[in-house]
Write a structure and sequence with these properties.
Layout lengths: L6 H15 L4 H7 L4 E10 L5 E12 L5 E2 L2 E4 L4 H17 L6 E7 L7 H15 L8 E2 L8 H15 L23 H17 L7 E5 L3 H12 L4 E7 L2 E4 L6 H11 L9 E3 L1 H5 L5 E4 L18 E3 L8 H9 L3 E3 L1 H4 L2 H15 L5 H26 L3 H20 L4
Parallel strand pairs: 3-6, 4-5, 7-8, 7-11, 11-12, 12-13
Antiparallel strand pairs: 1-2, 2-5, 8-9, 9-10
Bound molecules: glutamic acid (GLU).
């Protein structure tokens, strides 16, 4: 039977696996495998040519046993309710892994933002925000950027929510520009966190990051900054990167600063001087030390997992590896650093931003990065012994660690009424 690639079914299977190890009863498993609250919105947007188009969006609040819901908003043509559910579940475990006082949520709009003008995108963002404004807020649910949304999107969301309220509410979203209550370091936080985790794990694996070769799939916020940090801060040799339009490969190492300029100019990494074209599929199978999936879900599956030659996989994307692929990688001795740990730097600095907004007192970049490093390194150091003791892969260990925290919070609060 071919592997089931439905993201929410994958998310549920991951919860069930850890629930078995934690010996949770069926009532608790029932609670953990269902989203708490879901909102679907169909809303009209006026396009530049004067016509009106109706878009569909979602906001799923998966679980808030540990605090207000938290999670990004994605604009992508393949967004679906089940994808948003899965992403919201993963946020629940991610915030628990990092010990942030949050639950998990996610939002999405079915749209290809590349086909809209800036004005259309602004109107779409504002109308979506007003539609979900009934369930978001600094003490309820705090959105942030995700695939194809950025600090400008967050500025529009913050402004729309504030206009509805009649006063400025900076804490309603994170990932904002600095000028309206954003945090130093938020822009590169996802990639920076992944770098800290990769560095810690490389040490335990005897990989010298200063000599390591790296391939990065995806060149958005996580992937492009990830490639730069591996290159600049760890001195690794980034030999391949790709984006939705194609990939580039140079066994002697790509010049990352120049590649960033090339991407800025042309909109893609493709056709970068001195490199060879490579497909996304080929990139995943390169003989490198570290593979960084930083794009979308379901990239490493039962079909290609046995062809992965990397010693370490660092999941900057959410859900890039399927459960069957997890098993194959583990069996082959590939160390996988799971999304809910490896890419948790983004939501961690989002948390710092929210705290700074609440206090109206802002921190230096150094303070932000130091706090991020200590929190994410602690999470790695807490999860590693679970994986060693139980002889399980790092994803399952991270789930055991995170799910237990959510269960404990649920139990101590009690079941109402
Ligand atoms: N979208 C990011 C993630 O998947 C960040 C979420 C946030 O900052 O709330 O973790």
């Amino acid at each position: 039977m071919p592997e089931n690639l439905d993201q929410f079914e994958i998310a549920v299977a991951q919860i069930r696996k850890s629930a078995q190890i934690l010996k949770l009863d069926s009532g608790m498993v029932d609670i953990l495998t269902k989203p708490k609250r879901e909102l679907t919105v169909n809303f009209p947007v006026r396009l530049d040519d004067g016509t009106v188009k109706v878009f569909t969006g979602y906001r799923v609040q998966y679980n808030y046993s540990r605090g207000p819901c938290k999670g990004g908003v994605r604009f992508h043509p393949n967004v679906s309710l089940n994808e948003v559910r899965a992403l919201a579940a993963w946020m629940t475990w991610k915030t628990a892994v990092m010990n942030l006082p949050y639950g998990g949520a996610k939002g999405g709009v079915i749209v290809d933002p590349k086909k809209l003008s800036r004005d259309e995108l602004e109107r779409l963002t504002r109308r979506y925000t007003s539609e979900i404004s009934i369930i978001i807020g600094p003490e309820k649910d705090i959105p942030a950027p995700d695939v194809y949304t950025d600090s400008q999107t967050m500025a529009w969301m913050m402004d729309t929510f504030s206009m509805i309220k009649g006063y400025s509410v900076p804490g309603v979203v994170t990932g904002k520009p600095l000028s309206i209550g954003g945090s130093e370091g938020r822009g590169e936080a996802t990639a920076r966190g992944a770098m800290y985790v990769a560095r810690a794990a490389a040490k335990t694996r005897g990989i010298d990051t200063g000599k390591a070769t790296v391939a990065v799939q995806g060149f958005g916020n996580a992937g492009s900054i990830g490639a730069r940090l591996f290159h600049e801060e760890l001195g690794s040799k980034v030999v391949a990167v790709s984006d939705s339009k194609g990939g580039v490969y140079n066994p002697n190492g790509l010049n990352i600063p120049e590649l960033l300029i090339h991407k800025e100019k042309t909109g893609s990494v493709a056709n970068f001087q001195g490199s060879k074209a490579i497909s996304n599929e080929e990139l995943l199978q390169l003989d490198v030390d570290i593979l960084v999936p930083a794009a979308l879900e379901n990239q490493i599956t039962e079909k290609n997992a046995s062809a992965v030659k990397a010693k370490m996989v660092v999941e900057e994307a959410n859900g890039p590896t399927t459960p069957k692929a997890d098993e194959i990688l583990h069996k082959n001795g590939v160390l996988l650093l799971p999304d809910i740990l490896a890419n948790a730097g983004g939501v961690t600095v989002s948390y710092f931003e929210w705290v700074q907004d609440m206090q109206s007192f802002f921190w230096s970049l150094e303070e932000v990065n130091n706090k991020l490093e200590s929190l994410i390194t602690k999470a790695y150091n807490d999860i590693l012994p679970i994986s060693q003791k139980e002889n399980i892969d790092m994803r399952t260990a991270a789930y055991v660690y995170a799910v237990k925290k959510v269960v404990d919070a649920h139990k101590i609060r009690g079941l109402w009424p």
